Amino acid sequence: MILPKGWWIACLAEELKSRPLRVVLHDIPIVFFRNSMGKANAVLDRCAHRNAPLSAGHLEKDVITCPYHGWKFDGQGRCVAIPHALISDNQFQIPAYTVKEEQGYLWITSSSKEARFQFPNLSGHQRIDYHFFVNGTWDQVIENQLDMLHTSVLHDGWFRTKQGSQTITAEVRPKKDSMEVEYFGEKRPSGLFSKILSPTSGELKHIDRLFLPSVTQVEYEIGSFHLLITTFVSKETEYRSRCFTRAFYRLWIPRWVIYPFFMLGIKTILRQDQQLLEKQSETLKTFKRRHFVSTPLDFYQRFIQENILMHQLPTHSPLKNETYQFKI
Ligand code: FES
Ligand SMILES: [Fe+2]
Prior knowledge:
binds FE2/S2 (inorganic) cluster; Naphthalene 1,2-dioxygenase Alpha Subunit, Chain A, domain 1
């Protein structure tokens, strides 16, 4: 019951109140609870005795009590009391995890040596935080957020449009723990969102990044408009992921004017992605196994396969800096 290497966002810090909270991460059910000082703890959501879920139990000071026979566990996962036993010391233990409350989230790890991802903080920008579930597989949710090519098809008319015929260049830059793709030569797209955000035409500055363990970042700049959207993608189960997003934008229009439109655009685009990823998951479930093919323009797929899904691909040549031209 060990989480993959690294720190994972389990939930918003404010979601954990005075009752136990069950969160599934990487297919592992985990129960979070606060002790009497408010410090968050996390242990496996499975009582050592007969495996009842501790999240259905209740808190007593610093321990969580199982709803079935009342065994009590502390934040380190040690069984500290068994109601009917005459002797109090026992060896029973359930797995416990290290938890940190930071940047508005509860972070969890099984091996705490790595640093937690630090969300950027842009002064002079407006900030919007949001979070959402996707009934999509973890790697496909990550790829979707970084995949430029679908934006002119699935989101036709919002940002880019289908009939675009610009030839642009992508510079692909894989690194040890991250990868970025920078696009050059794209004129302001002709979708509605683009026209409102940047009334005058010009060239778009666009960089997408992927940081391990599973953080996507999309950056756009045109004229006075600047947008940086960073999303931590947590895997719940094979077909369900949760995204924690922090977006910063700078724009000439006052926030109260642009905010409703901005959120409408974000929600519409997210809904389109969510619906598509859910349908894709259904297909993956039906066929039981994947049968993907890719072109060199699926820039992130190999990095995701090798570094996130941990599948060594048949080719052993290292990923390297490359430049591609394509039409959008
Ligand atoms: S199952 Fe938890 S105390 Fe028996
Ligand atoms: Fe999308």
